[in-house]
Amino acid sequence: MASDSGTPEGQVVTRFAPSPTGYLHIGGARTALFNWLFARHHGGRTLLRIEDTDRKRSTQDAIDKIIEGLDWLGLDFDDAPLFQSDRAERHAEVARQLLAAGHAYKCYATPEELEQMRADQRAAKQPMRYDRRWRDRDGSEAPEGAPFVIRLKVPTEGETTIEDAVQGPVTVKNAEIDDYVLLRADGTPTYMLAVVVDDHDMGVTHVIRGDDHLNNAFRQLPVIRAMDAIEGGWPDPVYAHVPLIHGPDGAKMSKRHGAVGVEGYRDEEGVLPEALFNYLLRLGWGHGDREEISREEAIELFDLDGVGKGPARFDIKKLQNLNGHYIREADDGRLARIVAERLDGDADVDLLEQAMPVLKTRAKSVNELVEGSQFLFAKRPLEMTEKAAALLDDEARQRLAGLSKMLHVQNDWTIEALEATTKSYAEQLELGLGKLAQPMRAALTGTTTSPGIFDVLVLLGKEEALARIDAQAADAPGPDGNR
Ligand code: GLU
């Protein structure tokens, strides 16, 4: 473990500790990002721990998704992931050390007794909490061979203050912290114990996590302090409890606000990893008015002082705008490969790359790039949207037939030359260019929205472009109105 095997004195060690019960939650991704940035900023290490002790709810699929999501965001770790479930024996060992040193005790209360206790507390309108009935009793009072759990003996006097790096000082009276279970009757450790032991053994110096764990910190610290008293070398970590992400309505981010898993932003929203990285960074952390911040700058600038105390509100419009920005900055070849993957099978990556400067000018998502590129690979006869079909009336088809004649003899298949030809034809017909461009667009793409029409002509190439135009122009009536 890092602490024993040489985490240099003073080196920052952070960890991301997801429970693999679903997907990589957007809030979890931000926690991971903050841990990663903090460690990188301080030249430290950042580790991944999979908290899979809830065997029923943890799945391999969820583990894979979390790791894939982190990888996609470019968050790497400085060691192989640690699986909490592998370490039950070590957790139990610490529980026994605490027991031997008098910082924990055996509790023989039966489930029925505890149920009765809770019912009594409920009736008396008291807070429901274990009443410490075995704290000062001797084990010999228990029935022979009776099962027991090991509970932590939390100090009942005084109070505990955490100087949280985000929340500031937070104080809780020790009497309010319960003597919770460390080791169950079957000898398995509880989650609360496991976290503390793992953080220690991994050499974690800074615990950066969601503020839904702030209460847990007050329950975890007594274990740390007891172990420090027993064997030394268990310093308090620095805690940083980051406010959760809320939806635009101020309620905790949930499915009804849209995607909550990182993969949803990738697959359904068509967001690039650098956009989500930057958005999550700026969500709850600020550096002046800076909007776009590169990874390198983020590492340079990130610190916990910049993390806000209030919950951050998720704003999908902002993410989409930011995504548009990053799409325009992205390498065309890379975008072409991303889009090709989504167009099942044999999309021509080179053609996509060639089209990308045109496709990406207005796109706010990969989905829009995919949609915008569809015309490139459409097969004749083109499927027409209703609006496109409506544009292709007899008059329009006649015009296309005339245009086609001119384009057939056009050798210079460039935007400038095509534009010049089309304009002169429009002038000849005494029409605005739009009157010609709209049916051209319909014929060439089957839709009414596409990149600039001359870009479309060039990207399709002379042969395919004319074949598409002719497929519509062929139906044109002759000059006398007969077909
Ligand atoms: N496994 C916990 C969670 O996913 C995090 C525990 C921690 O960071 O201490 O919420």
UniProtKB/TrEMBL annotation:
<feature type="short sequence motif" description="'KMSKS' region">
    <location>
        <begin position="252"/>
        <end position="256"/>
    </location>
</feature>
<dbReference type="InterPro" id="IPR020058">
    <property type="entry name" value="Glu/Gln-tRNA-synth_Ib_cat-dom"/>
</dbReference>
<keyword id="KW-0963">Cytoplasm</keyword>
<keyword id="KW-0030">Aminoacyl-tRNA synthetase</keyword>
<dbReference type="InterPro" id="IPR045462">
    <property type="entry name" value="aa-tRNA-synth_I_cd-bd"/>
</dbReference>
<dbReference type="InterPro" id="IPR000924">
    <property type="entry name" value="Glu/Gln-tRNA-synth"/>
</dbReference>
<dbReference type="Pfam" id="PF00749">
    <property type="entry name" value="tRNA-synt_1c"/>
</dbReference>
<dbReference type="InterPro" id="IPR049940">
    <property type="entry name" value="GluQ/Sye"/>
</dbReference>
<comment type="function">
    <text>Catalyzes the attachment of glutamate to tRNA(Glu) in a two-step reaction: glutamate is first activated by ATP to form Glu-AMP and then transferred to the acceptor end of tRNA(Glu).</text>
</comment>
<dbReference type="Pfam" id="PF19269">
    <property type="entry name" value="Anticodon_2"/>
</dbReference>
<comment type="subunit">
    <text>Monomer.</text>
</comment>
<comment type="similarity">
    <text>Belongs to the class-I aminoacyl-tRNA synthetase family. Glutamate--tRNA ligase type 1 subfamily.</text>
</comment>
<feature type="short sequence motif" description="'HIGH' region">
    <location>
        <begin position="18"/>
        <end position="28"/>
    </location>
</feature>
<keyword id="KW-0648">Protein biosynthesis</keyword>
<feature type="binding site">
    <location>
        <position position="255"/>
    </location>
    <ligand>
        <name>ATP</name>
    </ligand>
</feature>
<dbReference type="InterPro" id="IPR008925">
    <property type="entry name" value="aa_tRNA-synth_I_cd-bd_sf"/>
</dbReference>
<dbReference type="GO" id="GO:0004818">
    <property type="term" value="F:glutamate-tRNA ligase activity"/>
</dbReference>
<protein>
    <recommendedName>
        <fullName>Glutamate--tRNA ligase</fullName>
        <ecNumber>6.1.1.17</ecNumber>
    </recommendedName>
</protein>
<feature type="domain" description="Aminoacyl-tRNA synthetase class I anticodon-binding">
    <location>
        <begin position="340"/>
        <end position="471"/>
    </location>
</feature>
<dbReference type="InterPro" id="IPR004527">
    <property type="entry name" value="Glu-tRNA-ligase_bac/mito"/>
</dbReference>
<dbReference type="InterPro" id="IPR001412">
    <property type="entry name" value="aa-tRNA-synth_I_CS"/>
</dbReference>
<keyword id="KW-0547">Nucleotide-binding</keyword>
<feature type="domain" description="Glutamyl/glutaminyl-tRNA synthetase class Ib catalytic">
    <location>
        <begin position="11"/>
        <end position="320"/>
    </location>
</feature>
<keyword id="KW-0067">ATP-binding</keyword>
<keyword id="KW-0436">Ligase</keyword>
<dbReference type="InterPro" id="IPR014729">
    <property type="entry name" value="Rossmann-like_a/b/a_fold"/>
</dbReference>
<dbReference type="InterPro" id="IPR033910">
    <property type="entry name" value="GluRS_core"/>
</dbReference>
<dbReference type="InterPro" id="IPR020751">
    <property type="entry name" value="aa-tRNA-synth_I_codon-bd_sub2"/>
</dbReference>
